[in-house]
């Protein structure tokens, strides 16, 4: 067993750290307050290769492994999770799903602009009445021969307003239940596609989360992903990798909050010494460091299994549930370490605490991760 990162991994981690500290940190509080989409940062993520990290260079991607992706996600999420959720969805839900299951024509057409960040993609699974129970799709796609007619509404869609392309999950045959679900590539500009207002959220406020509506949208059959009826499995397989991205985001939020708490505790004095010298604070820092290290190992293990073509469904769910709970706990404690300063925006930790919450909800709630884990470990 070897825990050592390669030179290339370290280079990527450092490049992501530089980008986050120099280009995401300035303005992050204002973007959060005003719900301002990080246009410039997303453009730069494309230029730096962070939006198509694992995509084959022949499609304009960076051709890196999932470990590199985890490292970059952690660094960017330490600073700005509105940026890192856009990065995660584009990389692991949209690009990976297309590259793994798309036809050559689909990959040639859609992957290069997505991987280079000329446009971002969105993943449209959740609906007003189908969140955790993803088989209950109300969005329908009726087979008309050479095309489908798509109708329905998708909720809480990351990049719902800015995306150039949507991967849409829809029911094509109700009788067949989850085996009658398909996935489609839908372009933003097609007639009948529209978006609701940007959601006003607790955290990741700068990312654009919208409802997306489809009204009698004509989708060519060539834009269906995989065989007829593959859509539910497509969503499940894609989300397994997506959960590594969100686990790494949670890891980054936790380690960002920990670094701030550590630095503050060495500067702030109370009762004649830095608060880090008080055991009440020192023990909090010790727990944070230990739990973050455990979360990091789970994220890297899931990434390693994916990179070595082993089953990573269980590992990605374990990484996500653990890291997101560490993120919530660590950020709450980081606010506590900062005392009154932690409660104001200038010190960043209150934002990290708000951002942490969504990692327990999207791409499968903590409860859903426990469903996946318990079903796996209880299987005969
Ligand atoms: N890989 C491949 N196939 C899988 C699979 C996986 N990981 N998990 C399930 N399947 C298959 C099963 O084998 C089964 O197929 P067969 O009947 O052919 O054998 C089929 O899918 C149905 O499986 P289940 O009976 O286990 O399905 P279920 O209804 O009990 O639900 C679930 C399983 C795990 C709870 C699933 O519904 C789930 O993951 N729900 C959460 C949905 C979710 O994560 N939503 C996130 C929204 S996307 C988002 O947040 C993006 C964003 O913008 C940030």
Structure description:
This protein is α+β, with helices and mostly antiparallel strands and 380 residues long. The protein has three domains: 7-120, Butyryl-Coa Dehydrogenase, subunit A, domain 1, CATH 1.10.540; 122-231, Butyryl-CoA Dehydrogenase, subunit A, domain 2; 233-377, Butyryl-CoA Dehydrogenase, subunit A, domain 3 (Up-down Bundle). It has eleven helices and ten strands. The strands form three sheets. It has a four-stranded mixed sheet with strand order 1-4-5-8. Helix 1 (7-24) packs parallel to helix 4 (66-79) and helix 9 (313-338) packs antiparallel against helix 11. The longest helix is centred in the middle third of the chain and has 37 residues, at 231-267. The chain is globular and about 80 Å long. The protein starts with 6 loop residues before the first helix and ends with a helix. The model has no long low-confidence stretch (mean pLDDT 97). Residues 89, 123, 125-126, 132, 134-135, 157-158, 178, 232-233, 236-237, 239-240, 313, 362-364, 368, 371-372 line the site of acetoacetyl-coenzyme A.
């Amino acid at each position: 067993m070897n825990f050592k990162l390669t030179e290339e991994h370290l280079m990527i981690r450092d490049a992501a750290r530089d980008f986050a500290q120099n280009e995401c940190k300035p303005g992050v509080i204002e973007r959060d307050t005003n719900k301002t989409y990080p246009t410039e940062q997303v453009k730069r993520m494309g230029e730096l290769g962070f939006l198509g990290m694992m995509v084959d260079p022949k499609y304009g991607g960076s051709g890196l492994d999932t470990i590199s992706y985890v490292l970059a996600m952690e660094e960017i999420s330490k600073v700005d999770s509105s940026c890192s959720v856009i990065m995660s969805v584009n990389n692991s839900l949209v690009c990976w799903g297309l590259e793994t299951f798309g036809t050559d024509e689909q990959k040639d057409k859609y992957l290069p602009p997505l991987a280079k960040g000329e446009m971002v993609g969105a993943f449209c699974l959740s609906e007003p009445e189908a969140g955790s129970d993803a088989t209950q799709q109300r969005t329908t796609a009726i087979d008309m021969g050479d095309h489908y007619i798509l109708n329905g509404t998708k909720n809480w869609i990351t990049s719902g307003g800015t995306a150039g392309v949507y991967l849409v999950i829809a029911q094509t045959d109700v009788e067949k239940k989850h085996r009658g679900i398909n996935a489609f590539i839908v372009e933003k500009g097609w007639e009948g596609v529209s978006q609701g207002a940007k959601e006003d959220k607790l955290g990741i406020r700068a990312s654009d989360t919208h409802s997306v509506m489809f009204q009698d949208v004509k989708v060519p059959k060539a834009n269906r992903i995989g065989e007829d009826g593959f859509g539910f499995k497509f969503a499940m397989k894609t989300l397994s990798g997506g959960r590594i991205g969100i686990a790494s985001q949670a890891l980054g939020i936790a380690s960002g909050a920990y670094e701030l708490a550590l630095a503050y505790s060495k500067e702030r004095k109370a009762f004649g010494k830095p608060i880090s010298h008080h055991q009440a604070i020192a023990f909090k820092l010790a727990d944070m460091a230990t739990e973050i290290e455990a979360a990091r190992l789970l994220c890297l293990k899931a990434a390693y299994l994916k990179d070595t073509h082993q089953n990573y469904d269980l590992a990605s769910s374990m990484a996500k549930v653990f890291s997101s709970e560490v993120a919530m706990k660590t950020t709450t404690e980081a606010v506590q370490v900062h005392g009154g300063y932690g409660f104001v925006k200038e010190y960043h930790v209150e934002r990290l605490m708000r951002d942490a919450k969504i990692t327990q909800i999207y791409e499968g709630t903590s409860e859903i991760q426990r469903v996946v884990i318990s079903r796996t470990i209880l299987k005969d």
